[in-house]
Amino acid sequence: MNKPKKRVVIIGNGISGITCARHIRKKDGNAEILVISGETDHFFSRTALMYIYMGHMKYEHTKPYEDWFWEKNNILLKKAWINTIDFERRILKSADEEIGFDILILATGSKPNKFGWVGQDLEGVQGLYSYQDLELMEKNTKGIRNAVVVGGGLIGIEMAEMLRSRNIPVTFLVREESFWDNILPTEESNLVNRHIQEHHIDLRLRTELDEILGDQNGRVKSVRTKNGEILEAQFVGLTAGVSPNIGFLLNSGLKINRGILVDSYFKTNVEDVYAIGDCAEFYNAPSADRKNIEQVWYTGRMHGETLAYNLTSSDAVPYKPGVWFNSAKFLDIEYQTYGQVPPYWDESMSSFYWEDKGGKACLRILFTKADKSILGVNGFGWRLRHEFFDKAISEKWQLEKVILNLHKANFNTEFHKNFHELVLNQYNQQFGKKLALKKSSFLQKILGSRA
Questions:
Q1: Between 3.90.550.10, 1.20.210.10, 3.50.50.60, 3.40.718.10, what CATH number should domain 114-240 receive?
Q2: Over the stretch 116-172, which tens digit does the pLDDT of each residue have?
Q3: 3-state SS string over the chain?
Q4: pTM for this one?
């Protein structure tokens, strides 16, 4: 006798929701899967929004799957905003219909932060997260003379780059002493500071927004900083972080703190209701070096994979993300980080830091003083293999072993400058060593650096 068909409804078509839908379908051909989003008809790469604005891509280029993929895999898509949820009746309510569910997965993502600034709702003032935000930015930046971007994070530098691609003068307000210095050690932060300024972005460190001033038509005309300076601006980007997009769930019966509270299996306090991705907040952080809310693309994918496995298997497993990883791009400089590299560390740790003479590439390796096992790595302007450092950190390789094998971590293109020999030379000078790379065999030269 066939099992009764279960209706799995996913709110949100970002990386978490779509990964979960795909992996449920891989293991369960019987379940009815419905993905609901008011943002777009299809899943798209959110990190590519900036390239649409910059003219490098069109929207259709950002879709990882062809439009026919969803029907072929029997995954139903619905474009709608869900306004309320009746958990007792298991009913979702949009503006014009009610939708039932057996299992509900909340993957509603994030929304840009606003901190109650005077003028934050003026025309021409906005954040950047959704496709609708991109469309609004197209409208808001037409014919403007000056822009101000508020908030020194990843979205802020992306927005500044987008504006500069159209030759719009940008003033970038960062309240910290140095760019992203709550995440990056001093040298890496200074490297990014220089790079921002080289791209003709007016970087104002130690500068906070006080209020946004409007004209008689309700449109932004300038901003005032906390030191009293008035900066002309017909566009203001608010990029002071994001927070879980859960406004429609307040007072719904779900346990909510900053995000939707879940256990290590993504279960909420309501039976058969789960939360994954940016909107989920773990009761207990997954590990000592993790936060309760994970707003990173690759962790969103892992959330979706783990929950899909648990919903289609008899041996449910807790979420175990492993070694921390993230990547980003600061204008022309690519950035990768593995493990833990805080801006400051205690006396039990030390670090090895190398920077290229051109100031566009660097490598930092954090390690324990006791046995020199590595704890984390920052790489700028140097593409590094994820699997290499995942293994090295997991297996607690010693610093020297990592240095001697860096050529295997190199993922730069064929004609890109290779840095591993320069790093080895500095390591030898700094630690009084005479280490040398083993000469590659003929077979290794053919197979490449990983042989």
A1: 3.50.50.60
A2: 999 999 999 999 999 999 999 999 999 999 999 999 899 999 999 999 999 999 999
A3: CCCCCCEEEEECCCHHHHHHHHHHHHHCCCCEEEEEECCCCCCCCHHHHHHHHCCCCCHHHHCCCCCHHHHHCCEEEEECCCCEEECCCCEEECCCCEEECCEEEECCCEEECCCCCECCCCECEECCCCHHHHHHHHHHCCCCCCEEEECCCHHHHHHHHHHHCCCCCEEEEECCCCCCCCCCCHHHHHHHHHHHHHCCCEEEECCCEEEEEECCCCEEEEEEECCCCEEECCEEEECCCEEECCHHHCCCCCCECCCEEECCCCECCCCCEEECHHHEEECCCCCCCCCCCCCCHHHHHHHHHHHHHHHCCCCCCCCCCCCCEEEEEECCEEEEEEECCCCCCCCCEEEEEEECCCCCCEEEEEEECCCCEEEEEEEECCCECHHHHHHHHHCCCEHHHHHHCHHHHECCCCCCCCCHHHHHHHHHHHHCCCCCCCCCCHHHHHHCCCC
A4: 0.93
